[in-house]
Design goal:
alpha+beta; nine-stranded mixed beta sheet; 2 domains
Length: 489
């Protein structure tokens, strides 16, 4: 047996021993994990209501004691305490109801690198148990994936196995996000909804082969009958990491400046940004200069956001949506082959809901997928709990000869599911499972899997695997989504 195999097997044996020696209090059940997941519509309908009702709410999440309390910046290196604030972290929520009597839907965006499903459910619990939103059928909360926001996951603390989450901050974040959702409901009014789509103008870059991404900028816009409300939901796929690893200031990154540009050029306007399929990894055009600190990162962040906002403002060729909203969600059990993440959970760095029942020696993570339709077969939104590789959406996989492990990808891709005219991914939605990678290009370091990045036979880096739950995740999520959509008709 070679040395690499001995090391690998020793690490796996150690992780199994730890998993199965931990007391039951460290684990949970699917019933508990799914308790506050509203499942949505049992069956989808093509029959609309009289009109849409829509409302917007937001709250500032930025702590007001940044210089007195230690808050770690998430997304780059660990042990990077914030020293100031460039722009605020927000929770922004939109409430939508088609007035069919089937209930309303919430889409909420939080300026954070990612939020675990356990914390998502803490927010849902506050909203549901407040009793302030009757007939609510779905609550969906997404992270914008800002790499300059306060650590909401725990991975960027002082040391690698010391949690970086500030629990007082997280309790406050959950409460304020719930407040934003309730405000959105309370501020609702009647009106019309439209959508428009445009391809980005050379704004994106794919850091890993294959070179593929969703270039679309999608705008969903609500306009109240009395002209008092102009609410926009924007979907675009890019890592919010433009301030670079040297930043010491809390920020929402480019989405803050995109939103500022949109709102400053539209009367009575409020905006929610939802990120897309950013695995692979999809970032901004000049990201390599950001990585190498060859650029004024603050200036570039603001410029990128402003340019993106200007494109959104140019989307005037709109299609009106019939007042129909269908949504459905289901819990998913993810086999977590990444023992490093499971050990981090058992050590209290992460706080995902996990189980050790799925198969001997392998823990699993409780997560969820969802699917939302707007209009009469107009828009289909795949609610994905992590950073999906775009080829799992569009089918642009590496071939058998090109892939890291020499196999062919065999998936029913998301783009082929459902029958709506326009489809897109909502990433980091209701959980953050890390990178969701096609199994034919999933490649691990032979000596220290999930710790050190691997290099395949083409000398290509496979960093993303170290921040993934494992090679089964993509298939599990796509198959669960397909089953969910089939069951909705």
């Amino acid at each position: 047996m070679n040395t690499d195999k001995i090391v690998r097997n020793s690490l796996l044996a150690l992780s199994k021993a730890i998993i199965f020696s931990m007391p039951q209090k460290n684990f949970t059940t699917s019933e508990i994990a799914n308790k506050y997941m509203l499942r949505g519509d049992d069956k989808f309908t093509d029959r609309g209501g009289k009109c849409f009702s829509c409302g917007f709410g937001k709250t500032i999440l930025t702590p007001d004691n940044v210089t007195k309390e230690k808050y770690f910046i998430a997304g780059y290196d660990s042990n990077n305490p914030a020293q100031g604030v460039l722009d605020d972290m927000f929770a922004r929520a939109v409430y939508i109801d088609d007035n069919t009597g089937r209930g309303g839907v919430v889409i909420c965006s939080v300026d954070a690198v990612g939020i675990s499903r356990r914390d998502i459910n803490r927010i849902r619990k506050l909203v549901i148990e407040s009793g302030k939103i009757p007939s609510l059928k779905s609550i969906n909360i997404c992270a914008t994936h800002s790499h300059s926001a306060v650590d909401t996951q725990g991975l960027w603390g002082e040391k690698i196995f010391k949690c970086g989450r500030n629990e007082a901050f997280m309790t406050r974040l959950c409460k304020l996000t719930a407040d934003a959702i309730i405000k959105a409901y309370e501020n609702r009014t009647d009106g019309k909804m439209f959508y428009s789509v445009k391809q980005s103008e050379d704004l994106q870059f794919d850091c890993r082969t294959p070179d593929t991404y969703d270039p679309n900028i999608t705008k969903i816009r609500f306009e109240s009958f009395d002209g008092s409300k102009n609410i926009q939901v924007i979907n675009f796929a890019s890592h919010a990491e433009l301030l670079g690893s040297s930043t010491k200031n809390i920020s929402a990154d480019f989405p803050a400046y995109m939103i500022k540009e949109i709102e400053s050029n539209n009367e009575n306007c409020e905006v929610v940004f939802i990120n897309g399929a950013i695995g692979g990894m999809i970032s901004a055009k000049e990201i390599k200069k950001v990585y190498r600190e060859q650029i004024d990162c603050e200036a570039y962040t603001k410029e990128f956001g402003k340019n993106l906002g200007a494109i959104v403002n140019s989307l005037t060729d709109e299609t009106e949506l019939a007042p129909i909203i269908n949504v459905k969600s289901t819990g998913v059990d993810i086999a977590a082959a990444n023992y490093v993440l499971i050990l981090a959970r058992l050590l209290g760095v992460l706080n995902n809901d996990i189980s050790r029942v799925r198969s001997k020696g392998v823990a699993s993570i409780y997560s969820e997928v969802g699917y939302l339709e707007l209009g009469e077969k107009e828009i289909g939104m795949f609610l994905i709990p992590g950073e999906l590789f775009p080829e799992l959406f569009n089918g642009d996989f590496l071939s058998e000869k090109e892939s890291a492990n020499g196999t062919k990808a065999n998936y029913n891709i998301l783009k082929d599911l459902g029958d709506t005219k326009h489809k897109f991914v909502v990433g980091l939605c209701n959980d953050e499972l890390g990178y969701i990678i096609p199994d034919n290009d999933f490649f691990l370091n032979s000596r220290m899997p999930y710790i050190n990045k691997g290099k395949d036979r083409f000398d290509r880096d496979h960093y993303e695997e170290t921040n993934s739950t494992g090679p089964e995740t993509a298939r599990t999520l796509l198959e669960a989504t397909e089953k969910l959509i089939r069951s909705s008709r």
